[in-house]
Structures are given as structure tokens and as C-alpha cells.
Amino acid sequence: MQAQERQREPREQAFPGSVNVFSALGVPIRLHFTFLLLAIFLVVLGLSGTQSAPMNAVYIAALFLSVLLHELGHAAVAKRYGIRTLEIVMFPIGGLARLNRNPKAREELWIALAGPLVNMLIAGVIFASLFRWGTILPWEQIITASDGNLLQRIAAGNLVLALFNLLPAYPMDGGRVLRSLLARVQSEDEATRVAARAGQVLAMLMGLIGLLYMQFFLVFIALFVYLGASQEAAAVVGRSLTQGIPVRAAMVTDFRTLSHGDTIGDAANLLLSTSQQDFPVLHGASVIGLLGRNSLVRFMATEGPETYVASAMNRNFTVLTPDMDLAEALPKMGQAGSCALVMDGAQLVGLLTAENISEFLVLRRIGMKPELRTV
pTM for the full model? Predict the structure, then answer.
């Protein structure tokens, strides 16, 4: 019974290219490797002013904390709607709170607004305190980094962060707000297309301005925005092609399995003799693991061909049902990696792989209707 529970609760895979740093409110906080570029940029920017190195470090840490609080604001509101935050990934243009399900239109509106509101609150508290102390500086004095305007620049940074994120273009929070509002009068897919298209247009304008004024960091941000908008537009196409289609229509039904007593050498022979990359591992009629190509090759190189597959298999595999909507299964595939097992009760009836999903989408796009197989 415990083994079955572990099978149905796979470990969440970290965002590619990110490293775990710490956890906050039970949410893993991870840094994407490109975040180092932002840190380098801020250090160079600080050195160009009259700010001391310790105060420059404080400024960078304050901005990092502001972005983190922004994302925790998203996570806190999402939790109120029963949506779990899988992780927060820090990028050069901000953070990403990855949720375990897509929020509904009304939910997304408040989840998206929560982040910028946190930054506005931070900026408001600092500016109000400075006003009370009579130390508000004019804007031209805030632009140049110095030890004397540290608090003003932290407040201004939070204000800029909030306003930038409220631009009505995906993947910024403003784009998500736009999508949630449009989704009330049109389909969610069409609302997403509009928000993603706005994001692409904004990214091209930002890139053009960055090139004209030799602001290459702005070009870098524009690239991130464009890629994020393009990925969401592609995801819309995937959802529209899979909505209402059961997993059984796309799953692989002609597959090979391994026994828990087989060796890595046996698995390697199957890998060479078939086109299959992932192999379910059975103990009698029960599925106890999944052996992927990467694990197979790694254990072959480090442990040798006589090692039992039970030592190399993944026991935390993802399980789907044949009647599950394929559009709902796609996010789970992102957590599963390259393969998920399709189970009808305790019976293994198919595999769902990234490769055959791609082939299924190609056939759907050219107009072929899926055959609803029975299992």
C-alpha cells in the first residue's frame, strides 16, 4: 500500500537550469543560472556611481528580497484558492512562482495582482517614512547611486518593479490580469493568445529601443519576455488540440517491460532492439518502477551490466488514467519528465511519452482525428 502511494506522488522536478537555495513558507526558492547576469549588471551599475561596496551589496540584497516577496505574494494568494506553489525560480527579469495547476480566471486576477501590490506596499512604506523624516530627494538625485540615497533607490526600485510587471503583456503580471479579464467574455485560449501577442509586441519594442540606445540589458530582458510569450502561445495551441481528448487516444500501447530480477544488461539489449526509451519494471503483475534511458546508461557506466534494474529504476513515477483529459495530463508530463505510466486501476495499459505527444499534436494539427481506443 505504501509503495502504491509513493508511485502516485512523484517528486516535483526542479525548473531546468536552476539550483535550490533555501525554502520560504514551505516553498523551494531556486536561482536560475541567468540570475547571475543581473547580479553582475547591478554590481557594475553600483560601481559607476559613488556608492560604497557594502551599500551596493545591501542594495542588491534588498532588490533580491523585494522580488522574492513579490513572488511570495503570488504564492500566498494562490494558497487561499487551494493552489500549491511548487517552487519559486529567480530570473534576471524577476521571479516565477510555478503553481501545481492553472488558476481560473477570477483566481488568476488576484494572484497576479498580489505581487505588484507587495512591491507598491514596500515602496509606499519607505516613501512615507522618508517624507515623515523630511529626507525625500528629487528624482535626479535618486538616479545616481550613492550611500545617501539607498532607501530612496530601494523604494524606487520596488515602484519600477510593480509598474513594469503591470504592463498588460504576457508573461508579466499585467498580461495575466489582462488574460483573466478577457477570459470573462471570451474563451481562455483566445484570451491567452491576445495576452501573449501583446507580450511579443512589447518585447520587440523593448528590443528595438535597447538597440537604438545601446541598452543591451534591455535587449536581454526583451528576449526573455518574447520567449515567455511565445512559449505560452505554443501552450495554447497544445491545449486547444488536446482539450476533450482522453489520454488513451495518444498513449503508446505496444511497449516492452522489465522484471525486477532483470539486469542493466538486459535493459540495454531492449534499448538497442526497440525504439523504446523508458521501461516499466514489474514485480509479478505490479508496477514497481520506471527505468529511463539516462539512468540505464549511467548505471551501465558506473555499476556495470550485472546490476539489477531495481537499483536504477525510479520508484516515484507519474501515473495517469486512460480517461484523463490529455490537456490535464500535459502539465503532469512536465513534472514526470519524458514518460508517464497509464494505469487502469492496478493494470498497466500504456505509456505516455513526450515523443508520442509531439507526434499526436502534429497529426491533430493536420486534421487527423484520434481513434478512441478501449483498454
Answer: 0.68
